[in-house]
Amino acid sequence: MPASNATALWVVATPIGNLGDISQRAVEVLNSVDCIIAEDTRHSRTLLTSMAINKPMQSLHEHNEQQRIPQLLEKANAGQQLALISDAGTPLISDPGFKLVQAFHQAGLPVSPVPGACAAIAALSVAGLPSNRFHFEGFLPAKAGARRQRLQALAGCPETMIFYESPKRLPDTLKAMIDELGEQRMACQCRELTKRFETINLKPLGELLEYVTDDTEQQRGEQVLLIRGCETGPSAETIDPVTRALYLDLCSFLPPGRAAALLSRHLDVSRKSLYQLHNQQTRS
Ligand code: SAM
Q1: 9-117: which CATH number, 3.40.50.300, 3.50.30.60, 3.40.1010.10, 2.40.50.1070?
Q2: Scanning 65, 81, 248, 253, which has its CA 20 to 30 A from the CA of 235?
Q3: Residue from 9, 18, 7, 72 nearest 222 by CA
Q4: CB–CB of 33/8 below 8 Å?
Q5: Spatial contact of 29 and 1, defined as CB atoms under 8 Å apart
Q6: Ligand 1, atom nearest to 17 Cα
Q7: What residues does ligand 1 touch, defined as CB less than 6 Å away?
Q8: Which sequence spans correspond to the domains of the chain?
């Protein structure tokens, strides 16, 4: 049964492929609310119909989220209970809903989760990579230059990294990962999780690229890529070129230690690796 009658907005996870993964509580909550907010109402109607749920629906996607908020708050203030779902998995995880949830908090309206499937967590649970700490990255930028820059910034990340990727970009992303992280870095491709053609491939990046190039079936379907974190700790080589230039410029005005402390406070870069860069420069 629902946790509380006072909940104004339920954030409900739905399956990532296998309809059997809907929870009993998700069905009960979706059956009990006044309105279901969905990313794509036509897509979600199919899932809801399969569970004999027939409720008024409203769309909420990245292009209309902000403008939808006032009318959804109005409904909640009038005593209606709402549920937010996305096309698949957990709302807000590389999906819309953050602004809506934030607005409900700001309006003092209670929000409650109905947890369930999430591709990132399902993938982490079977990847065979360290799972005690992880970094969820979601989708890398679509443009090649920006994607490489982001990978450079992540090269020293010590935690297992989780990426969502579109099948058509998979080979290019693997190539960029090999260039920036090295072909020996362990990676796991989790494809079509919970569905008929589910595959889980744990291999060094170089072998994984060969594997998906030889078997083009592996380039189809939904993909999560997990990459083992950097095991040697942050080093100067992993600093992206813009941060590198900024640090070296700053060192003309500030002591290197202060410049490193300043940058590491504001950017995703460690003080230790910046200091290492300074030492390298003074040695050369
Ligand atoms: N909110 C969702 C969640 O909780 O995982 C993610 C939504 S995001 C827009 C969609 C991406 O999640 C896909 O492009 C793919 O990378 C990943 N994904 C979703 N379902 C998947 C599945 N069954 N197997 C592998 N990856 C999946």
Answers
A1: 3.40.1010.10
A2: 253
A3: 18
A4: no
A5: no
A6: 23
A7: 16-17, 86, 88-90, 93-95, 118-120, 164-166, 190-195, 222-224
A8: 9-117, 120-227, 236-283
Q: Report how far ligand 1's centroid is from the alpha carbon of 192 (Å).
A: 9
Scored b (16 or more CB within 10 A) or e, 17-33 reads beeebbbebbbebbebb
Cα(206)–Cα(197) distance, integer angstroms: 23
Residue where the block lists tokens 């809907």? 22
- Both structure tokens of 77: 């203030």
pTM given for the model: 0.84
- Cα separation, 190 vs 126, in Å, equals 8
DSSP single-letter state for residue 148: H
Which CATH homologous superfamily contains domain 120-227?
A: Tetrapyrrole methylase, C-terminal domain (3.30.950.10)
16: CA distance to ligand 1 center in Å?
7
Kindly report, residue by residue over 47-66, the tens digit of the pLDDT. 999 999 999 999 999 999 99
